[in-house]
Amino acid sequence: MTTARWAWAEVDLGAIEQNVRTLKALTPPRTLFMAVVKSNGYGHGALHVARAALAAGADRLGVATVDEALEIRGAGIDAPLHVLSEPPASSADLFLDHDIIPTVTTREFALSLGRAAAERAMTARYHLKVDTGMNRIGVRAEEAPRFAAGLKGVPGLVQEGTFTHFATADVPGDWDFARQMERFADAIDAMRTEGVDPGITHAANSPATILYPQSHFDMVRCGIAIYGLHPAPATYDVVDLAPAMSVKARATLVKRIGMGEGVSYGLTYRAAAPTVIVTLPLGYADGVHRVLSNEMRVLVCGQRAQQVGRVCMDQLMVEVPRGCDVSVGDEVVLVGIQGSERIIMDELAAAAGTINYELACSFGMRLPRVYR
């Protein structure tokens, strides 16, 4: 528990390590493992997660932005580090300064990177992103072989790898997934025909790593699963993951209200009988989505308790179960275990109409983290 604030997220680094080892065990022995620690480690803390994942056998790290990569390098972590989308061409020098591996999707950025490397008499590694059907970023699969061949002779450049990303890997037996796999394999074969070495080929995200062994290629990229959060309902029966994050708070006020009295903005909740309300010092600025108002449960006295009234920016209120004696300073669990009861991130996500990924990132916005 933090002393400056009575609301916090606990992160079990042992769970991170366990999950990395569990996921690696699904892959062939020589398959590389990238731990994706973007968005501050999905809210868990990128630097702590990166160190734990590497200690458990991860070979490489993946982030989304140059700033995220610079934070990792600034902490002294020297593992191979990828930025998984193409940055502005003006950032080319930063990749060389800090030994960061960029994604290439346009000739403009590739040439800027090559010029910057050649001027230093260096060689810059890059990974070519192939769009096989997600239509987000990347060179279209049918154009990728010629694109790669056009960069083959550029001074200062070397294509270390080639990758794609799946849109529907969370759906077992999906036709679109199979089509993306086929397009990627065809693009790789065509590159070789063009005289291009595709290098490290990789495609599998967390669900593909778990559900589709044929997608592992030379490396897998796992994000959400290393945090112990399942990427799809279908993965629960395939692999056991240990949730790393718990979200907790301590009661700041305990108040008895009368029948008919309301709670919070708009008085959207009114007591059906005299009851006890406990206030917790966290709200939607901490990742407890406002849409969860009057919908979510928390754990008090080892029991499930109803959150009541609108979730505020910095506070939320809970109706104390009958027979439960709560005092200021007592611990309440929003995500995690108390006694024999458990609330998992997926439960909150379902109530909020979103996914566990978003909630985990949201809890990382302002809540202090305590590492175990």
The largest β sheet comes out as: 9 strands, parallel
Question: Ranges with pLDDT <50 over ≥5 residues?
Answer: none
What is the CATH class designation of the largest domain? Alpha Beta
Share in β-strands: 25-35%
Q: What CATH architecture of the largest domain do you see?
A: Alpha-Beta Barrel
Instruction: Please name the CATH topology of the largest domain.
Output: TIM Barrel
Q: What's the gyration radius in Å? A: 24 Å
* Number of domains as seen in the coordinates: 2
SS class = alpha/beta
- Tell me how many strands there are: 21
**Helix content percent band:** 25-40%
What is the distance, rounded to the nearest whole angstrom, between the alpha carbons of the first and last residues?
11 Å
Q: Can you give the mean pLDDT?
A: 97
What's the name of the CATH homologous superfamily of the largest domain? Alanine racemase
Identify the overall geometry: elongated
H/I helix tally: 11
What is shown here, in short?
The chain has 372 residues and is an alpha/beta fold.
Descriptive overview:
The protein has 372 residues and is an alpha/beta fold. It has two domains: 13-235, Alpha-Beta Barrel (TIM Barrel); 245-343, Beta Barrel (Lyase, Ornithine Decarboxylase, Chain A, domain 1). 28% of the residues lie in helices and 25% in strands. α1 (13-24) crosses α3 (46-55), α7 (144-151) packs parallel to α8 and α10 (345-352) packs across α11. It is elongated, with a radius of gyration of 24 Å. The mean pLDDT is 97.
